[in-house]
Each structure stands twice: as structure tokens, then as C-alpha cells.
Amino acid sequence: MKNNSKTRNKIVLTLLMIFLTISSVLADENVTISGHVRSAETGEGLIGSTIYVEELKTGTATNAYGFYSLTIPKGNYTIRYSYIGYQQNLLPLSLSESNVKNIELQPSSAEMEEIVVRSEAEDKNIRVAEMGVTKLSPRETRIIPVILGEQDILKTIQLLPGVSSGTEGTTGFYVRGGGIDQNLIILDEAPIYSASHLMGFFSVFNSDAIKDMKLYKGNAPAIYGGRLSSILDIQMNEGNAKKFSASGGLGLLASRLTIESPIVKDKGSFIISGRRSYADMFLIFSRDKAQKETDLYFYDLNAKANYKINDNNRIYLSGYLGRDVFNIDDLFALKWGNKTATFRWNHIFNNQLFLNSSLIYSNYDYGFGYNFSDNMIYINSGIRDLNWKEDLQYYINTNHTIKFGFNAIYHTYQPGEINADNDDFFNSVFMGEKQSFEGAVYLSHDWNISEHFSVNYGLRYSGYMAVGPDTVYTYNEQDERVNSEAFADGEVIQKYKEIEPRMTFNVILNRNSSLKFSYARNAQYVHLLSNSSASLPTDVWIPSSKNVKPQVADQIAVGYFRNFKNNMFETSVEVYHKDLYNQIDYQNGAEILLNQDVESQLVFGKGRAYGLELYLKKRTGRLTGWVGYTLSKTEKSMDEIENGRWFPAKQDRTHDISVVGMYQLNEKWNLSANWVFNTGNAVTFPSGKYSVDGFTVPVYTSRNAYRMPDYHRLDLGATYTPKKKKRFESSWSFSLYNAYGRKNAFSITFQENENNPTQTEAERLALFQMIPSVTYNFKF
Amino acid sequence: MKTIKTFIILSGIVALFSSCRNIIDIELDSIDPKLVIDGAVTDINETLRIKLTKSVDYFETGVYPNVSGAAIIVSDSQGEMRQLNETAPGIYSAYFPGIEGNEYALTVMVEAEEYTAEVEMPYKVFIDSLSVEPTPSYLEFSGGYLVNCHFNDPPGIKNFYRLKVSGINDLEETNDALIVYDDAYVDGNNITLRWDEEQFLPNDTVVVELQTLAESTYEYYRTLASLFESGMIGNANPANPITNLSGDALGYFGAFTVSRDTIVISE
Questions:
Q1: CB-CB neighbours of A551 under 10 Å
Q2: Residue B232 has pLDDT above 90, yes or no
Q3: Is B140 at the interface with chain A, CB within 8 A?
Q4: Chains A–B, number of C-beta pairs less than 8 Å apart
């Protein structure tokens, strides 16, 4: 441990030295221009728009709030502001002193996109020292066909290389072999613990309320942390600061309505976006009484407001509320939902130093009830987070940007509470709350070393502390409690810490190609226990504890990036290797539900994942889209499962192919199609059978040794946009999910033949064959 | 109390979408036949029977080869020890009534291998009464009556139960439901277990059997029952049921007490 802390001090010291050196090289001859880049249509900040100095062949990009800062020598320049889907703005500037330049960009119409000269900014994938990153905005993905016509960013990211989908039709996803709980999904910085609606068939993200999202496949910069495999950073729309506008959609499954308006023109705005499903309305027509009495719906509400106090201060308040309800008469009930609230304050100290302070509240509660001999019994669990973040960005000059800050989270877990209608029958139990602190400090440095080398490196130092009151048990090999230790309120039960270095090195070979190397270590202090194949609220989140160590992963990746035809085509080849430690699995026959001793049911081990990702994207022209291919292997090894033999993880898929195409037929019609193929998931099937006490019992030989059948599917879509009438725009979206009706196996059940019990058979359950849908969207 | 039959109901949601079930061909590995030991000490049968068979490949016809020529010894914590005789091919028996609180040890020697198991006979819990109620509307069948079994769970000790209910004429039919419970969260309570698997009609005579299981027997049944869940909520990591048998044998050596009662359904 001693050596460890010495190394740590050394690293911190080195970073500090570099930081100081850079600060001192700031020449007096330099001036800074800074400001915000916004949309002229809505007044919203544009995230990641490019600011490029023609003469210096260098530039910068706006941050998550649309802010930029550029420090360059005095002189005369032409500065180009550009953003995808917007007309670029060329600004001649004679710079003799520091200056604030707020820029508004006009959106470009579809026809214009054809003729706009592609700017240097389009080769960001080549120049920036980041890997395994994908940025998407709902605008770009609007016409990709989806099931039941409900736009879903989580469905879109499953079409990217290195990202694979969970069970059919669900929003759960796996990134580079990591588990579903190893993805951190943040909505305006608030963690969303369960991103699924309706058993996971829909995500909680209403695409009308989403502005931008960025997915990091395990190589995130030091500002992010807390999960091993990926960070999905989603930003909500801010609301139109120019004029009132409303938009919405009517779909088969759900309808949406969004209103946005300035609070004070160009100073503040708000947006409220709601969505509700009405699948259960169809059930009224059902002849089955139980189905008639079924409630099955979800709703979401997104709201956000921002207000500019003065040029240097702006505040944002955003919130999300979503809920799922599923009741079958007096038989069964499921409920879950997230509530989040984020308060943010942007403060510009000076034209080079930007601070964002955030206070974040996040609550996820989940529960189910069932009828037990005519008594309803409810089990409720939940997580509550209070989170404080300070993030500073220091734009030293075009070659150096420093980001640093800290983050402190107070978690409260409620592992389970049992309520019975009739207390005489069922003892109501409160399993107690578990509290913990999770904190991190980080520093990262973006450094353009020369025309050919750039690097992003940084360090995140995270720590975790479980605190009382709590009673902690230790278990023997028979899973029996052997010792208990009681901790008082606020008493430290267990501490963990981890140094997480991050580094991406970019070698720019020429204008069109680059080679990147990256390494990242990530630590994760919360874990999801799931024992069913669907995303259900019966899955349990548990914190790290005396018995459960934090998960840690090291990932290295190498990639070659090459653009063709003036950046019309973007291609990449990336390979990765990931080692995972303190991975969690269950013993065979584990009981995780309603189990106070759930930790005794867990086994720990390691994992490894490696793969190759190919990506070809056509960005411009009438036909756009991409082809992604992933070749990968993901394995686990647990001492207590088959003596540590490496076995394939459930999500292990050898081949995974996605083809996405969008074609602008004419001004009114947009066509789209996507096709996916993947090797079936690893699964445990029986090999033999025997008979005991009249039951036919399957014999299993080894875990995940079989494969589900290969999966493939074609979806088609078309969007019809009639001519805009005054301010009123509308469109019709048609889609056909699983167009050739492939019977993909959702599950395979091994069972006795009903007519001949001596015969056993395999039954495939296939969902969703040829599901058509139509959605009407409007905006004014 | 954790019920084993979780929410098969959930698959109801699937009906909302177009779904279809088909029998498909799948290739499964062939495995070496394994020894299967099936037997339990009870307080209702004075004769202890142990059945030895072999497993077969999954898609073979369910005819399980009997295993003859084994030497089987059962002893208890009172010092009783008996060798079981092969009374029919693969069936071994001896006079050995189960007594509450006694521990039983099994040794099977066959084909040059030795298999052992131990189990403790639990204390008996008696059925207090039975009652009948009309089938509530939310079940998949209706128009008949369901049977409730009432009993008092002894406080302070862990208990494990299995409920078996059938019409008096169907006693010999094989079970198709395996319903087991533990007393977590209901310890010491006056418990009602309702049989939701099947409804009965007026004038039916229904036999209710409440078995109090040894913990290892419960664990075997619980993990076995979880393999019967299917479809959307299928067990994500199916594995062989947890057995108290040593070595590589399948099956279990169980112990349970039985309390039985009958009721005639009246309107």
C-alpha cells in the first residue's frame, strides 16, 4: 500500500508541474476570444460546434453548454464557426485585445446540406485525441426505423460497433462485453439507474426532450467515472429562447407533447415535454377478465429551464420524472420509476476559465407485488443519490486545455421492504437502509503537442466509504452467518479507493488519417444483481461492502481512423482488450430476491473481453448511413463456478453486424432501412435428463456452453414531410419492424411434450414479427 | 415466505405483441449416463424405498435404465443400520420408518463408486383445517372452487413446506406442480396456503398433503422448481438442482413428514 501512495503522489506532482509550466508559457502577446455558440432558431447552446482559425490551422470546440475559449497570438484572422446541420459562419477578426464573441448559427435546410462545402471541422474524428466515442443527436437518427415507431436513442446506439443489444426489443445494451450495469447513463448529469419502460421495450428517453448524447466505450476522459464499460452522457433540450413553440407526436403506442418558450427573450427559456403510453387501452377490448382489469402504462415528464443572469452567469434547472405501472387485477403488480433533478450554475471567471457547479438528486425506486393466497404482498427497493460536482475548464491556448474538478455522491440504498395488506399473515419487514459516500477528484489535460501529435491524459482518484448504521455479516462456505458486527450511525464500515489513469494518444498521419492508442482504468462501486432474462424491477442494486469489493477494469485500445472523399466517408478500425476484476456472479441456485443474506449468494472472479470493431459511415449525400461490424469474445472465470474454468459471458457474441441506410428520395420522402445480424448469446441448455419423484429433470453440464440461434432482422421506414404551412410543420413516419418476419428466438424452453410426457422438446418463443406502425409528428 | 411460483403471469404481456411458440430442432451434446438416486425418509411409509436409475440424453425417450446390483445402507442417529434389498430392478427397500429429529445417512455402493448423503427428519407440522372458496376472477380458470390449507407455523425455527393437493381419484397421477415454501417472513404465523394450480367442483373429495421438508430437500425442490419457469422471465442461469448427494450423482436423498386431510367441496 505504501508504494502505491508514493506512485500516486508522484503522478499528482507530475501533473501539477505540467500544469504550472503550461500556465507560465502564456505569452503576453496572446489574446483570448470566448463566448457561446447558439442556434439562431432556438437560442440553444450548440454542443461540440467547431471554432477554427483558418490562418493558424487550429481551433477548439464548444463545451456542453455551448461555451468556447480560444487563445491565440494577436493578429488578423478568419474564424470559422460550424456545426452539423447548420450553416457555417466566417468571421473576419482583427484581434488586438481579448474579446467576447457570441455567435448564432442558422440551421441549414436539407437541400443546402448538399452544397455546403465540408469544413475542416468534419474531420474531428481524425484530429481529436479521443477513442471509442460516438456522438448522436436525435436530429440525426430521427428517420431510423424502430419498433412501434417510438424513437429511441438507446435503440440507435445498439446499432453501433462495440455495442450490442440485450434481449430482443429491449433497451438494455452491452458495451465491449461489459454488463448492463457497467454502463453509466446520465441525463443532465443525473444517473438513471433503470433506463427502461415497459419491461425494457422502450427507453425512458423521450427523443423530443433530448438534445445531444455522447457514448464513451470505456475510454472516457477523467471527468467521467463510476462504471466499467461505458458512459452515456445525455443532455436535455434547453427550450426555445426566441419564441414559443410546440411539437408532438401521435403514435400507436404513445403520444408526446412538448412546449417550449422564452422566459425572457434571449435570456431564459423553458421546455416541458411529456409522453404517455396507452397500450392498456387495447386491453379493454379483451375478452379475458384479468386482461381487462390490467393496467399497463408508462409516462415521462422532462422539464428544464435556464436563465442568464449576466454574461458570466447562467443557471439551469432540469428534472425528469418517469413511471411504469403494470397491474393485473388483484394478482400481480409491478412499478418502477426514476426521478431526477439537476441544478447547474455556469460561471465564467474570465474568458479562459469556465466553471460548472451541479447539485444533482436522483431517485430510483422499484417494486412488485403479488398475490399470495389472496393476500397482496409488496416488495419495494430503491436508491437515492445526492451528488455535488464542480467542474472547471481552463482554456490556456489552442494547444492546452485543462479540466479538473471533483464529485461527491451520497448514496442511500434501500435493499428491500416488504409490506403486506394483512400483517397477521405476512410479517412486514424493513431490511434497513445502507449508506455510502462515493467521491472522486480528477485532472485531465488536452495537449496538442505538434501538428502530428495530440494527447489527452488525466487521472481520476476515486474513493468509497460505506457508513453505518448497519449490521454486517460474514459468511462461511455453507453461506451461513458466522459473525456479525454492528456499526453506529456515521461509523465507517469499509473504505475502498482506486487510482484511475486515463490516456489517449493521437498520431495524426496526414489530413485524412490518424492512429490512436488509449488506456483507461475504471472503478465501479455499485452493482446490479439480475437473475432473469428481461429487464425487470426484480433486479437488485447493491453497494460495495465488506463482502463485495468494487469492480475494476483496465482497457487498452488501438485504432486507425481514415476519412475519404473530403470527409464524405468516415472509417475506423479499433481493437480493444479489457481485463475486469472483482466481477460478480451468482452461485448456482442463488436466491437474490427478498434475501437479507444476498451477499452470501454471490461469487467473485474476473473477466476478459477483446474484440475488433470496423466502422464505415457515409455522412453526406442523398444516401447516408453506416455499416458496423464487431468480432469479439467475452469470458468470465469464477473460482466457485466449475473451478475457475473460463466460460463465455451471456453477452458474448462472436459476430455482430449492423447496416443502417437513409435515403432522401425527394423533398417529401425519406426512406430508411436497417439490418442487423448477430451470433446468438451464450446460454445454458441441458444435455441430459433424468426422473425424480415423477418430475423430468434436465441435466446441465457447463455454464453458457450453448448458443441461441443466430439473430437477424430487417426494419424498414419511410417519412413523409408535406410542405411547411406558415409555421406549421408535420410529418408522417411509417415503419415495419422485422420486415421479413424472421422468427428470432426470444427464449428457448425445454419441456415435456404435453401429449407424450416421455418425450421432451425445445420450444422457441419468438416475439415481434412484422410489426407495422405509423406516427404523426407536428411542430409549430 | 418466498413462493417458488413467481410471476409466470408476466408472459401475459407477450400476448400484447405478436408472439409465437414453435417446437424447434436443437442439437444438444450427448453425455455419459449418470447415476440418479431418488428416495426419501418419511413418517407415513414404514418402508424406505430408494430408486437407482441412469440419466439419458435430453431428447431420448424418457425410459431411464434401472441400476441393479447396488449395495445400499441406511443408518440413523439412534444407531439403527439396515441394508436395503433390491425388490425390483433398480428399486431397493427396507423397513425404516422415519422419526422426527433423527439424522439419516445413506451409503450407495455401485459400479465401484460410493455415494453418500445425510439428512435430518424435520418435526411435523399438522394441518389445522381446510377451507374452500370460489375461484377468484383473476385466475386463468373460473367457476369452481379453490382449497385453502391452514396451519400454525412453529415460531423460532426455520420450516420448509411442500403442498400437494389433488382430487381423491387422481392421487396416483404424477405431479405436474412443484410448490414449496419456506417460513421466512411468516415465521410463527397462522398460515394459509391456497392451491392455485387447480380448481375443484362441488362434491369433489380433495386430499391435501402438507409436507414438512428437511432443509436440503427444500433446497433441491426449490432449485428444481426454478427450472420449470420459462419464457420471458426464464431463469438466466439454469443449473442442476442443489443436492445433498456426494460425488457426481443426480437426484436427492430427502426427508419429510406428512400431514394429510380431506375435504368435500360443497356449494
A1: 27
A2: no
A3: yes
A4: 246
pTM of the model: 0.88
ipTM: 0.91
How close B2 comes to chain A (CA, Å)? 8
The helix/strand/coil state of A257 is strand
Q: Which residues contact B36 (CB under 8 A, 6 or more apart)?
A: A690, A691, A692, B51, B52, B53, B54, B55, B64, B249, B250, B251
Mean pLDDT computed over A191-212 = 84
**B195 in a domain, yes or no?**
yes
Query: HEC profile for A390-415?
Result: EEEEEEEECCEEEEEEEEEEEEEEEE
Q: Which three cell numbers stand for residue A23?
A: 500556465
Is residue B95 located within the same domain as residue B193?
A: no
Residue B204 belongs to domain spanning: 123-244+254-264
Q: Could you tell me if B200 and B88 lie in one domain?
A: no
Q: Between A429, A699, A768, which is nearest B240 by CB?
A: A699
- Pairwise CB contact (< 8 Å): B21 & A703: no
Nearest CB partner across the interface for A762, out of B15, B23, B55:
B23
Across the range A2-28, mean pLDDT stands at: 55
- What is the tens place of the pLDDT at every residue in A391-425? 999 999 888 999 999 999 999 998 778 777 766 67
One domain for residues B100 and B53: yes
Cβ distance B226 to A589 less than 8 Å, yes or no, reads yes
**What residues in A contact B55, CB-CB < 8 Å?**
688-690, 699
Last residue of a domain, one of B120, B135, B155: B120
Taking the C-alpha atoms of residue A712 and residue A531, their distance in angstroms, rounded to an integer, is 26
> Using CA atoms, how far apart are residues A693 and B254, in angstroms rounded to an integer?
11
Question: Is A741 an interface residue toward B (CB < 8 Å)?
Answer: no
